[in-house]
User: Fold this.
Amino acid sequence: MTTETGADSEAKQPQDTNETEKGKTKAAADPASPLKQPEQLPAAVGHSTPARKEQEPQDDDQESHRSSISHLSKSPLRGVKKVKIMQCKVTLLDGSDYTLDVEKRAKGQVLFDKVCDHLNLLEKDYFGITYKDVDNQKNWLDPSKELKKQIRTGPWNFAFNVKFYPPDPTQLAEDITRYYLCLQLRDDVVSGRLPCSFATHTVLGSYTVQSELGDYDPEELASDYISELRFAPNQTKELEEKVMELHKTYKGMTPAEAEMHFLENAKKLSMYGVDLHHAKDSEGVEIMLGVCASGLLIYRDRLRINRFAWPKILKISYKRNNFYIKIRPGEFEQFESTIGFKLPNHRAAKRLWKVCVEHHTFFRLVSPEAPPKKFLTLGSKFRYSGRTQAQTRRASSQIIRPAPLFERSSSKRYNMSRSLDGAPITENHDTLMKDSSADGTAKIIAKGDIITTVTTEKKAEEEQAEQEDAAETPELAASTQQRRDTKDTEPPVGVAKHQTNISELKRSFLETGDSKPGLTEWEKRLSSSPAHSPRADEAPMIEPLEPQDTEDEEPAGDERKQEEEPKATEATGYLVKYMADSVVTEGATSSGPHGISLSTTMDDDVFIDGTLREAEEKTPDSQDEVSERSMVKISPGAVRQEVSQAITDKKGTLIILKDDTEGKNTAVPGEDTEDTGLLSAPKDKETVQDDIAVVVKAQMTNEVETPSLKIDMKPDDMTPFKGMDSPKKAMASWISQEVKVEASEVTCVSAKEVREMKTCDGLQHKAQIFTFEEMAHSKQSKSDPTQNSLFESSAASLAVSTLGWVPSSQKTSAESEQKETEAAPAESAEPAGELSEGGTKEIPVVHTETKTITYEAAEVDSNGDADPGVLLSAQTITSETTSTTTTTHITKMVKGGISETRIEKRIVITGDADIDHDQALAQAIKEAKEQHPDMSVTKVVVHKETEITPEEGED
Amino acid sequence: MAALMAGFGLYTHAIVRGIPASLAKEALRTSEAEVDVDKARGEHDAYVEVLKTRLGLDVVELPADESFPDCVFVEDAAVVCGDTALITRPGAESRRGETEAMKRALKALNLNVVEMTDENATLDGGDVLFTGREFFVGLSSRTNQRGAEILADAFKDYAVSTVPVLASLHLKSFCSMGGPGLIVIGSSEPAQKALKIMQQMSDHCYDKLTVPDDIAANCIYMNLPNKGHVLLHCTAEEFPESFKVFEKLKDYTLIPVSNMEKVKVDGALTCCSILINKKGSI
Assistant:
């Protein structure tokens, strides 16, 4: 099975999209009626492609983007402007086709939701929609992307499938969900994707019969009633007889029970839920890579020759047709190792990568990671944006509807397939999925054949995609180093998207405790082991043999973090939420050290707002980006609310909510207030600037894109500001501090945007903090267009970890602060722009990833005043250990009669090893506080620079 | 209700085989030890007696065949799991003929018999560890990749992972199952290493019971109706330290079984029988 070909599409988008679109849209465009196009009907699909390409108005895509704002108004100025409706055919799990209309520009989510509605399915996170790509490979539809971007050629035919096989189907809340899972599994079995023994075929078959036909009734059922049904790839008379024998014994068993039994057996099969991909190892040996809930499995023939549990994997990446995993060093190893696999082609590599990202997120993370910020990232922005298993479980526990009545369609597909050609599978998704079957040796060949039809154009695509990929590795690498809590990274999009009611979501956040599937298994094991009781008294004797996995729990956190990192970028806007979220999850699960460290760090007096910024190479995909981006934006408001709500709820019991917000900064009680009296905080631009690591990145943007981006984004970006206060409160309360909390969220896109934000929330002086960072970005992005599209760009960066703290003091007006922020970035941004220019052309390509995170005390007093103050003294102390360099910079200034002592501490940590950044940060802050109890931490900037080693980057 | 993979350790039948006189001189061995055939037979009789009388299994006793000195070690000739029996292709050429009698016996028990006909494949049952949830196959001097692949094909329900076995004859020369989810493992370095590999390859969690002597880690676990957990393990005489470890197991019926002679020709406890569950099979 495979996923969507995002990378390719992203890469080729600029050149390719228009053409493919033409094929599709053309049909929609040429008949006058804007609604259903007969030509788009599945029947007519065959010819919907290249022949008509030329006819498509060239501007189709842009058109649709532009019209996105007003498309609802259907004003028929021109035919093209009308909403184009596409007819989609979705093959359901029972083999039937469901035909529905969606807007051409609709996102995958729309289609998915409609299908789920049609199916009356609430627990939909386990499912997905697939389509075939040009190679006839099955890809998962990305819910966050427009359909038309994904279906580039051919008819809009899809299939509804199980995407994440729940390791324990009994945990599904509804019978109807299990029913659909059963249908999928029946098909998996019959098609051979899920191999099983004769005995298993018999058992599974018998439950299938029971659920479908009910009790055995010799009067009603013909003697060969069972031959109508399919149970196995090679169904024999003997099998049917055995099935019948068993069926007779099930009298009185309800369909739901039968399905439960079916699943209980099916889930134990070793290939249950394993998504197989053909590959070759470094020595060219044919192997299969299997992605599943617990990790990555390596098969040679049918043998499992290796297994990498998710916690063992530090990083996954792909480049061209190579797929890499970086492995956590074992007990006796000192270094991480990277293992590479060759996939048949680039698309396959990307598909595999995506499936891995999704499975990892779904099964291992408490909440998904946000995709990287479009503008500044390199590599694929793809992230899983749906709910994780943990979340979906919580959510389903909230389902309160009466068990829906549903009709179990008699398995049409089996009959159908039989009558047609004897082949077990007829439906298009079957064929698609076959790709991943264990016995798919022939597949590659077939694939190869198809590939031969590929033209040079495609090559170009691939090349571009490759470039993109090159960038990709760094991204992940960076994430590797930075250990942020995965949980933090809350994918606003997915949640909002999926979320049906707030309480559901709340639930899911609150009960993350048992989210680790491994644990349950483990516990089961423990309790079932006869040695269990003995072990109690003789502890040393029988030991759990899975220290690895248990240990893993922790590492898992790290791992996530790493992978998460990139996501956070996209989440800049949602940072507040993200933090809040992490706090919550932490509290609930106490599984990851990171979230915890974060919250403990900012324990009492200071509440920290964070900005996360990530500068990365940008790939030259314009349209996609735009769409993805805007997509992402949709949710923040909602998410935030939910999150905050969830938090508040949780909090409710523990803590009192503090309600100070809205641009009004209250003084901090406690120690801080004392300080306040004494000192003012004159901060001048320079200091601010200092704190900011300047990151220079060359970006490739094309002009077309920029405008469209703006259009799409602004409205969305604004949303963050609303509802912002709630999470803050929530957070504050969680920490049980009376600190004013402020969160500002700004997604950096364009300068324009930033400015808008400012204006719109005058009340918000928080915005400032982020603003400057954002500004820098925006500046950059602005300048980029002028530079025009340069593909390979290099990144020069400056990594600094700065911990600066200033005695807290009076706060100045929001306005002045804004000014300051505005100014500061301006300066830092300038050089950035220059650098990037130079860099793009001349600097050899060094893949460096830089990441800056700023946490700033909400009440950072801004000085705003142009008066730089008088420098009384300055002192710099440097100390070094093997891996860290600490520079303490103390400045005393007098400004407006108030003296300020400002201490900046820079800690530069270097090394290959996994650094637990959060911990380091927490430690640093703690120390700082201990050393200067009378001062408060006002700002924390974490800047991370990762250099991608050539091995990884190149091959 | 039919359920697969239930009842780990539940057996109804056992297949054993007599000891030919040729064992003393001709049986393959990794050491130079002298074997006393009579003693060995005595041991074996006691072993069979335990299965038959003490545990109440239906024991199928195949006659010894002088032309197959190692024939007593029936485990190598077949792998039985559920209702499927895979007739192996033993790695030692001199032992290939042992499978004939085994095949007949298994067919007589109405098992679904699968044969390993590929001439490139070798597999000794002693390299096959079935944990109840999956198989581990030792890649040893007796078992190769192809053999493992065929095993995987024969038992499609289960994951089959390979484990390199370098320092000993078979995988089960230093480990075995001591209960559901409990692996008994020797303390030697190769044994521990192999265990690490198994643990890495597995989706499941196991407990381990480490015993000082590798060969003592080869024991036979059963879970029998009315008897509960049963463990046939080494005697105090043979491996006093390991014996002490077993002794500490609670809720087990512990049955020390002497194996002093057979061990000289690398025969461990599991080697001498094939255990079959006919009731649970469909």
Summary: DSSP finds 32 helices and 22 strands in chain A. Chain A touches chain B through 55 residues (CB under 8 Å).
